[in-house]
Each structure stands twice: as structure tokens, then as C-alpha cells.
Amino acid sequence: MFLSHVKQSILYSVWKSILKLRDSVTVRRIDVQLLQQDFKLYYILKEQADTVAVKNALSSAIDVMQALSSSILHLLSKVEGRTSLVSKLSDMAGQKKFTLGECRELLCTAAKLQVQESSLHTHLMQLREGVLG
């Protein structure tokens, strides 16, 4: 029992030390991130000597984005119109395919009827020759 208590105490101490180390590492990481952000901010502010220039650059960027937006909307309406036309064209192609299938069947039937007609005509000629002959 005493040995188990000692093991638990050691385990608790190790666990507590690990947590302290983890917390310390986390704090150090946060400190490093803050320093990196401070450095970035310092660099940006150092490079930005004129706030008017920044304002003008942002204004120009917004103007370009608005122009692109209206162009995209214009093109989108054209694309939607084309999509409707393509859909109608697809429907028509399906109808034409069905009609071509029906035509193929009718041509096969006409060919069969032509063969029958030719056969009957030949048979009729043979019958006439037999009667008149």
C-alpha cells in the first residue's frame, strides 16, 4: 500500500512537471507569435510613409473591383442566356434523334414492302405467262 502511494506521488509529480513545461512552452509560443506580429506591424508601418497613398491605393482597388463586378454580372447574364439556349438545343437534338429513329424504321419497312412488291410483280408475270403461254 505504501509503495502504491509512492508510485502515485511520483506519477503526480511527473504529471505536474509535464503540465508546467507544457504551459511554459505555450506561453513562449504565444510570446514568439506576438513578437512576430509586432515585427510585421512595425515593418508595414515603416513601409507606409503616406496614409494618403494607402487611401488612394485602396480606393483604386475598390474601383477596379466594382468594374470587375459589373463586368462579371454582365457576363453572367449572357452565360445564363446561353445556358437556356444550350438546354433548348439539347432538347431539340433529342427530338431529332427520336425522329431519325422513326425514319430509319419507316425506311426499313418501305424496303421490305418494295421487296414484296417486286416479288408479287414477278409472280404475277409468271402467272400471266402460264395462262397465256
Commentary on this structure:
The chain has 133 residues and is mainly alpha-helical. The protein is built from 2 helices and no strands. It has a domain at 1-47. It is 96% helix and 0% strand. The protein is elongated, with a radius of gyration of 45 Å. The termini are far apart.
Task: State the main characteristics.
133 residues, mainly alpha, 2 helices, 96% helix, elongated
Instruction: Round the mean pLDDT to the nearest integer and report it.
Output: 85
Give the low-pLDDT segments: none
Q: Structural class of the helices, strands and pairings? A: mainly alpha
How much helix, percentage-wise, in residues? over 70%
The count of strands amounts to: 0
Span of the ends, CA to CA? 133 Å
Give the biggest beta sheet. none
Strand and helix order? HH
Radius of gyration: 45 Å
Strand proportion:
under 5%
Global geometry: elongated
The number of helical segments is 2
A few lines on this structure:
This protein is mostly helical and 133 residues long. Helices cover 96% and strands 0% of the residues.
